[in-house]
Amino acid sequence: MLRAAADLLARKSTATTEEVARAAGISRATLNRHFPGRDALIRALEDFGIAEVKAALDAARLEEGTAEGAVRRLVRAIEPCAGLLAFLYSENQLFEGEDQNEGWSLIDERLTDLFRRGQESGVFRIDLSAAWLAEALYGLLAAAAGPSSKAGWPATTSPT
Predict the structure, then answer these.
(1) How far apart are CA 86 and CA 144, in angstroms?
(2) DSSP-derived 3-state class of residue 122
(3) Higher-confidence residue: 157 or 93?
(4) CB 86 within 8 Å of CB 142
(5) Which of 74, 148, 149, 152 has the fewest Cβ atoms within 10 Å of its own Cβ atom?
(6) Could you tell me which of 82, 105, 68 has the C-alpha nearest to residue 6?
(7) CA 64 to each of CA 74, 97, 121, 131: distance values in angstroms, whole numbers, following the listed order
(8) Mean pLDDT value of segment 97-109
(9) Which of 80, 103, 74 is nearest to 6 (CA)?
C-alpha cells in the first residue's frame, strides 16, 4: 500500500486520497482506516522513505573505497527510491518544528561524514561545508527524480 502511494505521489504530489487508494488497489475507506488523513499518510511515507534511504546508504557501503566511489554507489543505490525522496523533500512540514523524525538526522550525519572524508582526502572541494554538499546532493537527486524530470536517470550516473 505504501509503495503504491509512494509511486503515485512521486509522480503526482497533488494526488487525492481517492487517487492514492485507487493506485493501491483499495477503497478510500480502507486507506482512511490505515491512515486517517493525508498527514498520517505522509508521516507513514516518511518512515518508509527513511528506511529506503538507510537501505541505500548501507548498500552503497559508504565507508569502503574512495569517497567519490561511495557517492557513485549511493546515487545508483538510491535511484529506485529517488522519486519518493523527491516527494518527501518537497514536504516542508517534515523538516520543521520539534516533531522532525530523527531518521533524517542520522541520514544527514552519514552523508555529511562521507563528504567530510572526501574533503579530507582532497577529492571534494573544501570551500563548501560537508553539510552543504550533502544538501546539494539531496537537491540534485530530488530534481533528477522529481515530477518535472522528463528524461529520467542517465544511463551512467556521474555525480562528480
Answers:
(1) 8
(2) coil
(3) 93
(4) yes
(5) 148
(6) 82
(7) 12, 35, 13, 20
(8) 83
(9) 80
Kindly provide the b/e burial profile for residues 129-145, where b requires at least 16 CB atoms within 10 angstroms of the residue's own CB: ebeebbbebbeebbebb
Residue pair 38/45 in contact by the 8 Å Cβ criterion? no
CA distance linking residue 69 with residue 56, whole number of Å: 14
pLDDT digits (tens, 9 = 90+) for 37-56: 888 998 899 899 899 999 99
Q: How far apart are CA 63 and CA 76, in angstroms?
A: 16
**pTM of the prediction?**
0.79
- DSSP at 27: -
Separation of first and last alpha carbons in the chain: 36
Tell me how far apart the alpha carbons of residues 20 and 65 are, in angstroms, rounded to a whole number: 41
